[in-house]
Amino acid sequence: MNWDIILSTTVKAAVGVETVWYALAAIGINIHFGYTGLLNFGQSAFLAVAGYGLAVTVTTLGLPFWIGIGVGLAAAVLLAILLGIPTLRLRADYLAIVTIAAAEIVRLIFRSVEFKDVFGGSDGRRGFSQGFYDINPYPQGTYGFWPLSFNEREMWVLSVAWALIAISCLIVYLLMKSPWGRVIKAIREDEDAVRSLGKNVFSYKMQSLILGGVLGCLGGFIYGLATGSVQPDIFGTETTFFAYTIVILGGAARVFGPVVGASIFWVLLVLVNGLLTGAVQSGLLPFMDITQVGPFRFLLVGLGLILLLVYRPQGIFGDKRELAINAR
Amino acid sequence: MHAETTTDRKAAALAVFKDMPREPGVAKPDPILVVDNVVRRFGGLTAVDVKHVEIQRGSITALIGPNGAGKTTFFNQLTGFDTADSGEWTFNGRRMNGVPAHKVARAGMVRTFQLTKALSRLTVLENMRLGAQGQSGESFWQALLPFIWRSQEDEITSRADELLARFKLDAKREDFAGSLSGGQRKLLEMARALMVKPELVMLDEPMAGVNPALTQSLLGHVKDLREQGMSVLFVEHDMDMVRDISDWVIVMAQGAVIAEGPPDTIMSDERVIDAYLGAHHDAPLTESELEQQLQEAEEALEAEIEEDKK
């Protein structure tokens, strides 16, 4: 087994591209689900409209990079409003049904043959990230130290992504300490009580949906810029479910929960992948071949999460007292 | 220290009702809430059909009636938690039909719930602070800048602490509301409603599920609301409580207001006995009485059957 590679890929996973864009998506979910109690199962759609907003503006329309970012953000806000108006007045479970359906509609439109000229079908879009790397302040070279080493492009994406995560966490921290956050958390507990105290619940839920959607959609930008491409199937329902897993792993309604959760989630996936691949290659697992490693690691991670939920349901940062109250 | 004003307020309230006719929908000299023709149907069932009713300002009015009389549904209509099929009502002269719940509360008409709605995973203090109106920190952009709302927050906190002390919840200040007992939750809900600074407090079964030791203190708090110049409308099943604290009683049955009157005589009103206690007012007290009643009933049935045969 090549321990060097296993160790270095694992350490890189803790701060790597997958971690950061999932962390951003999960920060959004944390606002929706953790703080407001909105069961948004369509988070992937927010990432998709942002990523595609950028990609299509730059490639199909030939407009500059920054306009693409603006279009992506506007698309996320618009999506939140479109999703929210019909559903936020209804019970929580309706929002779950509608958002999961809406996310699939968005994905299917992006991969449809009909709009292949605009969205590029199932191949997606590529070649829109040049504007981003043009302003890369890092000169060509390798940065960091073993086992953490990145080229200048990775460095630039990761710097921006971690800055966005820091800003998002600061916003969440400030908001949730404020009277605004108090109303949001109260809505999670009981909408009618909040209404009886003179608060416009619909308006707050809409603000929460937009905020979580916008912060989450930053993950879509980061994915698109890091890989230089967007494909519709990246933004499928499993992206949303991974984000939920990350939120629960880190601890719902905790500022750093989604960030630490994302790190641990990807470290575990990469570590298990590395160990299994190594074990198969050195003949330690004769009943498996190398192609089975990918699916099998999700099985193991799933098992790990079940154990986590049984023995530490509050996640890493959560407070068991709160959970006990909820289960009452 | 409030002794003098206490008797004054109560005496004033009672003086108003002294010679008032006991008719449903009777006019009050200074109504805070006037309701006309409120109808709410659920499919074929007419849950509420109130022709006219007025609630006197500065008094404690009880709303009683058998289960299913539509009291809570009526409450929901008035407070905007459910939409009435027709009818209108004014609060302080302002039309309130069709007004959403949060605006009703802002107007000064605040309700509590039959099943207490403590915000479990918020602390008792946060529950209280939530009730305060016009908080600048509750707007999204201002929330991001703590220096804007900090002083208002301090003001709200000191008001919340005063109320918590009055309701003897100050020791629980930092506890999660979900860890309180049922009675303490009722107290918290009432205290939280007061943070809104309401003019009319609407309590939906404030005594349900409260242990007897806390009942007296809750009763005292309800009476205290009138002393502070608020009006109270409450739904209750416990007649001892109704007799103890209310100045006026409105009786509902099958969705309609069937009688009004002072608490000490309302239960002897013919219409109330018929509608509200009809099934139970002659219920047996002992086993021998039960047997006797059964016998009488059987005889009556047999007599009826005989009559049918003829």
UniProtKB/TrEMBL annotation, chain A:
Listed InterPro entries: ABC_transp_permease (IPR001851), LivM-like (IPR043428)
Location of the protein in the cell: Cell membrane
Main location: membrane
Annotated membrane topology: Multi-pass membrane protein
Keywords for this protein: Cell membrane, Membrane, Transmembrane, Transmembrane helix
Any Pfam family the entry gives: BPD_transp_2
Transmembrane segments: 20-38, 45-61, 67-85, 155-176, 209-229, 241-257, 264-288, 294-311
Protein name (database record): Branched-chain amino acid ABC transporter permease
Protein species of origin: Nonomuraea corallina
Lineage: Bacteria, Bacillati, Actinomycetota, Actinomycetes, Streptosporangiales
